[in-house]
Design brief:
The chain is mainly α. It is built from 14 helices and five strands. The longest helix has 93 residues.
């Protein structure tokens, strides 16, 4: 069996036409399949990118980016984007090397098929036309033969009857015989021509045309295989990239270090403060051994726990001095103010003793830091943070400012070099056009230098605070607001002078049950921690602080406000981070920072 369509399928023209048409339809369907496959890959890549973008850590959660598990997740999302890129490359490769080429090939294949089958139909029509001509000549020859035979019978019968029309009948018979002979010759010619055409059609034209159709079909089938191979090869090309992405994801998963993350939590949230000391036992039975006067006095003092301890926690009864009617610049105040009461500290101390352990910790922290809670954004100097966190925050800010300054300086140097080139070669550009940009860069550098200087000062201040805290953690060496060491505060409490508060009221004698350990007092009520300023003030009148805890000032002096007036008429102020005390609120004009107002409201709730 030769297997050629020209010899084996010489009579199956219609079936070949249907078969080749179905083959082209399959090729079109496969092209559509690859196109939709590419669209699926594109949609998958788009969904992967949207997924990575959706779950990428936000800027508001930048603190998490320091941990290894977050870095690993970010690396996984990055590799997921690379996977999406591989899918996009696959889709592009399918569209360019498979779909587009198949589309062009299908158009050419349809044109070629149309040509081949047009030639086959034309050859078939030629054979059919030759067959029709043969049938026509054959029928004419048959008709002429029958007419000649009838004319011969008529002529023979008339001769037998000796009729006068015999000659005419004989002449008519001869004409019919002659027409039959001519029809015979024409029929033989038509028959020979048809046989030649038929032989040429089935042995020459049909094999050639059908062989061309067979070759076309084989090329179509081969092209289907090539397209499938190209589709698989395009996907195989992405496997190394996908494998690298998966390996990178595995490496990211292996890079997670739990111990490192837990240590980093300590570095981020460590406050630097020491934990509060033990609460000392207070022997109330000692009051029964006292005299009646002392016991009665103690009973009055025991009405509220805010009066149990020394004078800083006693509610003052003496109001602050009124402002002078005719202030004299540089003169002393006509009235000497009394020591302001510290009602917020008293309230915090009462909350400390009457609340649970959790609230007690919060109250102790509020006593240490001044403000334990905050609403809204903190001040620019990060004074609302504990010393360790504040130092880290300021250090990062200083490093960031230095990097910004370096970039701006490099940009300035580049602009200067460009300006120099323009000055040497004016045809390249106008040197004066760079002056506005240079001025803008110089202003930016100047602002960054000012910001750097300000943050460096805050960083130095924080270093001092950390040094004090380290010294305090090593022993009782913290300084009191008056400047004396707390190591001698116990002696001061036991001295006769310490039994009187600045407002003249009497405090309890130093008995056994009222002794305080130095470490406990420092841990719970150490006021050496520098409270952040919440604003500034200007003195309207001169004030001479004569009692302990007050601060003298001259008219027109600028001071930092540490604690707002709590309704007792006194405001806590500071001078040069060293001198601190209370001044009459009516003697000053206060300018609070907007962010500090929220802190003050919060501190009242503690």
């Amino acid at each position: 069996m030769s297997g050629t369509w020209g010899t084996e399928l010489w009579d199956q023209f219609d079936h070949l036409e249907k078969h080749t048409s179905a083959g082209i339809d399959f090729l079109e369907r496969y092209s559509k399949f690859v196109r939709e496959r590419a669209e699926i890959e594109l949609n998958y890549a788009k969904q992967l990118r949207n997924l990575a973008k959706k779950f990428h850590p936000k800027k508001s959660r930048e603190d998490e980016s320091r941990y290894t598990w977050c870095l690993a997740f970010v690396a996984t999302l990055q590799q997921l984007n690379l996977v999406a890129g591989q899918k996009e490359e696959l889709a592009e490769d399918l569209n360019q090397h498979v779909v587009s080429e198949l589309t062009k090939y299908i158009q050419d294949l349809k044109a070629e098929r149309k040509t081949h089958f047009h030639d086959g139909r034309r050859a078939q029509q030629h054979v059919e036309s030759s067959w029709k001509q043969l049938e026509t000549s054959k029928r004419r020859f048959e008709r002429n033969c029958k007419e000649a035979e009838r004319a011969q019978h008529v002529s023979d019968r008339m001769e037998l009857d000796h009729k006068t029309d015999g000659d005419k009948a004989r002449h008519n018979s001869q004409q019919k015989q002659q027409a039959a002979e001519e029809a015979k010759k024409e029929y033989m010619l038509s028959l020979n021509q048809f046989n030649q055409d038929q032989h040429q059609h089935y042995h020459t034209l049909v094999p050639v045309i059908y062989q061309r159709i067979q070759d076309m079909e084989e090329r179509r089938i081969q092209r289907v295989g090539d397209a499938m191979r190209a589709t698989a090869d395009a996907e195989r090309k992405t496997l190394p990239g996908l494998s690298c992405c998966l390996e990178a994801m595995m490496d990211a998963a292996e890079s997670v270090q739990p111990s490192k993350d837990t240590l980093h939590v300590v570095e981020v949230f460590k406050s630097g403060f020491d934990p509060p000391g033990d609460v000392q036992f207070e022997d109330y039975s000692a009051s029964m051994r006292r005299s009646i006067s002392e016991s009665s006095y103690l009973d009055n003092r025991m009405e509220g726990f805010s009066r149990r301890r020394l004078w800083p926690f006693i509610r003052k009864t003496k109001p602050p001095p009124p402002p002078p009617t005719s202030p004299s610049p540089g003169g002393d105040s006509p009235l000497s103010p009394t020591l302001p009461s510290r009602e917020p500290i008293t309230q915090r101390f009462n909350d400390l003793m009457s609340s649970g352990s959790k609230t007690r910790k919060q109250c102790l922290r509020s006593l240490k830091r001044g403000l334990s809670l905050k609403l809204g954004a903190g001040p620019s100097d990060c004074s609302h943070l504990p010393p360790d966190q504040r130092w880290k925050k300021l250090e990062n800010r200083v490093n960031h400012i230095k990097q910004e300054m370096q970039r701006e300086r490099e940009q300035r140097d580049a602009l200067l070099k460009m300006k120099e080139v323009y000055e040497r070669s004016p045809q390249m550009g106008d040197a004066r056009s760079l002056d506005p940009r240079l001025e803008e860069v110089n202003i930016t550098i100047q602002k960054l230098e000012e910001e750097l200087h300000k943050n460096q000062l805050w960083l130095a201040e924080t270093d001092k605070q950390l040094t004090m805290l380290r010294r305090q953690s090593g022993g009782c060496v913290s300084a009191t607001p008056g400047g004396s060491n707390s190591s001698c505060s116990l002696k001061h409490l036991n001295s006769p002078a310490s039994r009187e508060s600045p407002d003249g009221s009497y405090t309890e004698p130093p008995s056994a049950e009222m002794h305080f350990k130095c470490s406990d007092f420092d841990e719970e009520f150490d006021e050496d921690d520098v409270l952040p300023p919440i604003g500034s003030c200007r003195s309207l009148y001169a004030f001479q602080g004569q009692n302990e805890g007050t601060l003298s000032m001259v008219e027109g002096e600028l001071l930092s406000v540490v604690e707002e007036d709590k309704g007792d008429g006194w405001t806590r102020v500071r001078r040069n981070l060293e001198e601190e005390g209370y001044v009459p609120t009516s003697y000053i004009k206060v300018f609070l920072e907007p962010s500090a107002k929220g802190f003050v409201q919060t501190s009242r709730l503690v």
